[in-house]
Amino acid sequence: MVNWRIKGRGFQNCNCNYGCPCQFNALPTHGNCEAVTGYEIDEGHFGDINLDGLKVAGIYSWPGPVHEGNGRMQLIIDEKANDKQRNSLIKIMQGEETEPMATMWAVYSAMSPNKLEPLSKPISLAIDVENRTGHISIPGVFETEGEPIRNIVTGDIQRARIDLPHGFEYEIAEMGSASTKATGDIKLNFENSYGQFAELHLSHMGVVRSTG
Q: What tens digit of pLDDT does each residue of 15-67 get?
């Protein structure tokens, strides 16, 4: 197995209500699961291939809960990546060279037998985990905007976090509100639904924990 590691940030938006039942082993809000993801890599490698400074995104659609499978997915790789970097990122995000189900990417891939051809595109991506803001823009594929959750009465910014000591994606994630419009091969459209902002530190063994 190739030794790999990625450190950076991630921003996700799915069609569920704030909190996302999947985070608590419950069924999705509307019965199905649709999501987009974006990641910026500060430091990363796949074997001896450097992945520093690259971006990657994904778009997913399942007819029911993720664990029931039969999903569709498409990866979008930063057009700045060379062939070796591109192939490395595809392998990581398709769960290859990874312990079984050790990362969210391995789970998503295993539950998505309908894989569309990965794209090489310019990815405009900004993620501020602390302030719960994010933006993903990929021409011809999807556009996502994220912001903090606001009090429904006063409009004041609210803060909520999810702590998953044994999760396969993050240690702590900030909750937000986000909206997505996808116009590519996988079409999605949801507004003011679950947004997630988290520091990313993953390897072929899963989440790299800050404490034992």
A: 999 999 999 999 999 999 999 999 999 999 999 999 999 999 999 999 999 99
Task: Kindly report the number of other CB atoms within 10 A of residue 125's CB atom.
Answer: 21
8 inside domain: yes
In this structure, is residue 212 part of a structural domain?
no
Predicted TM-score (pTM) of the model is 0.95
User: Is 186 a domain residue?
Assistant: yes
Report how many domains make up the chain. 1
3, 8, 17: which is closest to 54 by C-alpha?
8
3-state SS class at 12: strand
Instruction: Write down the residue that tokens 């937000």 correspond to.
Output: 176
Q: Which domain range does residue 164 map to?
A: 4-207
Q: Which residues of 32-42 are buried (b: 16+ CB within 10 A; e: fewer)?
A: bbbbbbbbbbe
pLDDT tens by residue, 78-111: 999 999 999 999 999 999 999 999 999 999 999 9
Q: What's the helix, strand, coil split of the chain in %, to 5?
A: 10, 50, 40
